[in-house]
Amino acid sequence: MDRMDSYKEWRDKLEGSDPLYEELLSIEDNEAEIRDRFYKDMSFGTAGLRGKIGAGTNRMNRLTVGRATQGIADLIIEEGPDACDRGVVIAHDPRHFSKEFSILTACIFAANGIKAFIFDDLRPTPELAYVIRQLGATAGINITASHNPKDYNGYKAYWSDGCQVGSEIADRMTEKILAVDMFDGLKTADYDLAISDGLISVLPSEWDRKYLDEIESLSIHKGEELDLSIPIVYTPLNGAGHVPFTTMLNDIGYTAWHEVKEQSLPDPDFTTVGYPNPEDTKAFALAEKLGREVNAELLMATDPDSDRFAIEIARPDGSYLPLNGNQTGYILVNYILEGKKDAGALPENGAMVKSIVTSTLSTIIAESYGVKMYESLTGFKNICGRIPFLEENGLQYLFGYEESVGYALSKNIRDKDGISAGMMVAEAAAYYKKKGKTLLDVLNEIYDRYGYFAEDEPNIILEGIEGAERIGRMMSSVRADLPEEVAGLKVTEVIDYKDGHEDIPASNVLRFFLEDGSWFAVRPSGTEPKIKFYFYAKDVSREGALEKNKKIRDEIFTRIRSVE
Questions:
Q1: 303 and 423 both lie in a single domain
Q2: Which residues have a Cβ under 8 Å from the Cβ of 391 and sit 6 or more positions away?
Q3: Is the Cα dihedral 296, 265, 68, 415 positive or negative?
Q4: Are 54 and 117 found together in one domain?
Q5: Residues 416 and 465 grouped into a single domain
Q6: Taking 90 as the threshold, does the pLDDT of residue 47 lie above it?
Q7: Do 139 and 273 have their domain in common?
């Protein structure tokens, strides 16, 4: 069925009073808009679904959400009665239609005889990941678009291990989903009746406490070892972090923390921030303003579903320095290992995990403490997916992270977790302050001890079908003509993960290593319309590394942008 036939089918099958019908009618003369909405079915991958809200097969709406849910229900039924009885945990973020989609999801599972466990309101993504394993549920669903702009929503699928589904389960889900007729093949129950029948259960608040107890148990230093009067500013960016993050700060006993009030409560339009990604320094504008008012030494932010976490730290002149995900990772790797060693709690069989596009400086730090750093593909289904392997081989998981401001500190929370990352960074700041040092001092000490790296993770956004096709041409162009030299440095090794590499599964990633220890990588995003780059330059000084990184970036960008 071509896109116009698909458009007409939707228009013919929807009722005239349906908002989706009215939306389709409004674009009947806009061929480009119809093409973008119907040129493909929204693909269900290992990150589930994610896209703009609206009518169409390539949009997030009740039909595409319903079809995905019915397909997953069919898979769970195939797993057997026990899988249905163990049920599915469902959460949502503050976005437009998130609560409605979560209730729809619960009602479809209930209609298929599968128990659904829902929260009474929005919750952090990592809390969902935690509860899945604690309840012994078969699966989990989170209605969230993470850090995307306000016109997006998404559908993250988890399996019984508490991780986002891996490729094997995702492929089985996809097969079931594609077999569902979204107009005639959806079963749905009445919400109130399903609750009275016990097929839908609202989770009690005690799970919030258990989740925070798990996080707070990770603490390395406590009490008098910390300066709990350190001035801190936190913003949840109008997302799910407000209650758990501020509760955590109070539990530990911080006395000088402040929250950005304009961003404390849920706002699906993200009015005060626009693009609610803490990785984007513009998201810190109000936090910086408040920070200057209260002389804060540390600014912290979580994204709308509270799995991403980023920080800015005070400079001596009172301005704020944004740290990228790698730099925050260096501080966490260093603090965890240093703290455990000083406490005599560093295991001989410790292990950490980072993604293949995350800085190798963290590997150098880990190895200096006798800790093995393993690599995985990007995404915490892969990073936390390493935990069973580590345990089977007698290794103790200590930490996992990736450069895109994602950190996983607990082996029992198998996804990136902005709340636990915030707990540990705040603790590190309070610990070092007690010793007369700032996090900036610590970061500079890390560079002085282990080597000077510069990190840069730019991307090129190319939306729509034309953008997707151009990204494909860009990757093909690089593969067809691999560079032998970049910025005057010889390329000594190229790893193409398209067919896998060693124990890393296949992925559309290219990684280039240069003769002086610098390296870079390129890959298309799996969840957003962009091609992503990762540049890591090494030099005898931080300034030299930054200059070299710019030269490498400029040369590669000149080449990639020439691909039409």
A1: yes
A2: 397, 411
A3: positive
A4: yes
A5: no
A6: no
A7: no
Cβ-Cβ contacts under 8 Å for 177 (sequence gap 6 or more): 44, 67, 68, 70, 71, 72
Alpha helices by DSSP H, listed for 346-452, are 361-368, 380-383, 387-392, 418-434, 439-450
Domain boundary among 158, 182, 203: 203
- Check residue 433 and give its pLDDT: 98
Residues 440, 377, 283: CA angle, nearest 5 degrees? 40
pLDDT at residue 2, as a whole number: 82
Residues in the chain, overall count? 564
Sign of CA dihedral 506, 532, 364, 221: negative
413 to 87, 164, 410, 476: CA distances (angstroms): 19, 11, 5, 37
Give per-residue pLDDT as tens, 275-294.
999 999 999 999 999 999 99
Q: In terms of domains, do 51 and 34 share one?
A: no
First-to-final CA distance of the chain: 29
Q: What pTM value is reported for the model?
A: 0.94
Q: What pLDDT shows up at residue 444?
A: 96
Considering the domain architecture, whether residues 392 and 464 belong to the same structural domain is answered as no
Query: Are 287 and 333 in the same domain?
Result: yes
Q: What secondary structure, in 3-state letters, does 327-366 show?
A: HHHHHHHHHHHHHHHHCCCCCCCEEEEEECCCCCHHHHHH
Mind telling me the catalytic residues?
146
Work out how many domains the chain is built from and give that number: 4
Range of the domain at 90: 42-203
Distance CA 294, CA 38 (A): 51
Query: Same structural domain for residues 71 and 159?
Result: yes
Beta bridge partners of 374: 353
